[in-house]
Amino acid sequence: MRILVAEDDRRIADSLGTALSSAGFAAEYARDGEDAWFRGDTEAFDAVILDLGLPTLDGLTILKRWRRAGRNVPVLILTARGQWNERVEGIESGADDYVVKPFRMEEVVARVRAIVRRAAGFASSQIEIGELVLDTRMRQVSRAGIPISLTPQEYRLLAFMAHQGGRVVSQLEIAEHLYTENFEGGSNAVEVLIGRLRKRLGADIIATRRGFGYILGGTDR
Q: GO biological process annotations for this chain's record (predicted)?
């Protein structure tokens, strides 16, 4: 799944990107507020890590603009220690969670997982779809109790589809959430990846709705 890291401190941003990539996310960056606001307003992300102290446009203004425009992407705000009033205003403005600097990368990743999971309506890190069980904390997958090994890209695809609440997702939507803007794969990259995942999980686990896309579990809910 695709995460926007809106942080002007390159060292912090790069560390967050590395931690997110290791956890199975595709991280992209915005170094100032104007860029963060525009990308969040026009591109598809599964969550945003938003620093409140961005140059050109502050994080609270960005968050308020997104929410007024109906952008419901989960947002984790980063605040400086002691700025309790900003944390309160951030939550009241529509933030889903916050982390105080300095922070541990493991905590940020855990909180990102949690806000993405809650946005999809799941209370636990374990997502069950029939015989299929996806543990988003451990990044483990099993079917009928049998562990299944997936590549990082296969896991990202499965995790994205598992968070969609049983709805059909198009190839374009999958590509937007699975790959970063610098992806140079072919036009059939999603189709190939779907085929690989079917081989590992079983051909019946992902159904095709011709003209619309794919659905995990095979039936609409």
A: regulation of DNA-templated transcription
Three-point CA angle 67, 72, 73, nearest 5°: 115
Protein fold of 126-216: Arc Repressor Mutant, subunit A (1.10.10)
Burial class from Cβ neighbours inside 10 Å (0-12, 13-18, 19+) for residue 186 reads: exposed
What's the pLDDT tens digit per position in 76-87? 999 886 677 877
pTM attached to this predicted model: 0.81
CB 20 within 8 A of CB 45: no
**Can you name the CATH fold of 2-119?**
Rossmann fold (3.40.50)
Residue 89: other Cβ atoms inside 10 A: 17
The four Cα atoms 36, 41, 46, 51 give a dihedral, to 10 degrees, of 30
One-letter amino acid of 165: G
Question: Measured between alpha carbons, how far is 177 from 44 in angstroms, rounded to an integer?
Answer: 6
Strands 47-51 and 140-143: unpaired
Please state the domain extents for the chain. 2-119, 126-216
Question: pLDDT of 44-71, one tens digit each?
Answer: 999 999 999 999 999 999 999 999 999 9
CA 11 vs CA 8, 14, 122, 171: distances in Å: 9, 5, 33, 34
